Task: inverse folding
């Protein structure tokens, strides 16, 4: 197929771009990091658009809500308008389930715009990714000799390896249109404390607790847990 990946230079998009090429598809990319945007590019005959381009920083979205809306909502509308005949496979977010920030709200609004204006769509709700160049708490802890757990350490996330997420996106080409959550069973729902303890056993890093410090940030969900609702995918790479 002829496929467009928006955000193809990003953390997940870059890996998806290569995985699709390896499957023999004709793949094109658009990414603001490369000076290309949906607004200033157009590719004829696109069969599928994987729409991953987005502003994803929760705290930055609170400081710059207009920038967040322009890069998430407006860009999604541009994809809908430019590729009315293509199937859109959209990278949705667990943050849209309880939108306590402009980022979470913008991702929820994008889902609704796609549903309203583009019937041929599949939406994949992504949990917290880790591994192979990630920037979350898991990847940070993997580089540290001392693992500092702030507060009670019970902030919980569904964490899934980026390679498993990319595999789900590729498989979604064969799924029926609909909304799917890329979660897992309890092995993939971990608190910060559990993450630190698992990594400590693997790397020998020391775990320390700073219970006097409250790490909760405005707009972030304390427990962001999502199930697996896909037809035939499940995460395989466990943390430690």
Result:
């Amino acid at each position: 197929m002829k496929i467009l990946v928006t955000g193809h230079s990003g953390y997940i998009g870059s890996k998806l771009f290569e995985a699709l090429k390896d499957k023999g598809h004709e793949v094109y990319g658009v990414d603001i990091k490369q000076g290309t945007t949906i607004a200033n590019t157009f590719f004829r005959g696109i069969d599928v658009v994987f729409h991953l381009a987005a502003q994803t920083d929760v705290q930055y979205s609170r400081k710059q809500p207009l920038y967040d809306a322009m890069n998430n909502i407006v860009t999604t509308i541009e994809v809908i308008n430019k590729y009315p005949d293509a199937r859109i496979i959209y990278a949705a977010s667990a943050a849209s389930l309880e939108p306590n920030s402009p980022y979470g709200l913008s991702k929820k609004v994008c889902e609704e715009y796609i549903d309203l204006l583009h019937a041929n769509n599949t939406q994949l709700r992504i949990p917290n990714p880790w591994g192979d160049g990630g920037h979350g708490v898991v990847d940070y802890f993997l580089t540290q000799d001392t693992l500092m757990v702030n507060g009670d350490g019970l902030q919980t996330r569904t964490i899934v390896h980026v390679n498993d997420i990319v595999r789900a996106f590729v498989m979604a080409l064969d799924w029926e249109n609909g909304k799917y959550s890329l979660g897992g069973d309890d092995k993939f729902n971990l608190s910060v404390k559990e993450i630190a303890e698992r990594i400590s056993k693997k790397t020998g890093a020391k775990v320390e607790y700073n219970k006097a410090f409250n790490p909760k940030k405005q707009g972030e969900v304390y427990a962001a847990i999502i199930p697996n609702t896909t037809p035939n995918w499940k995460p395989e790479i466990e943390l430690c």
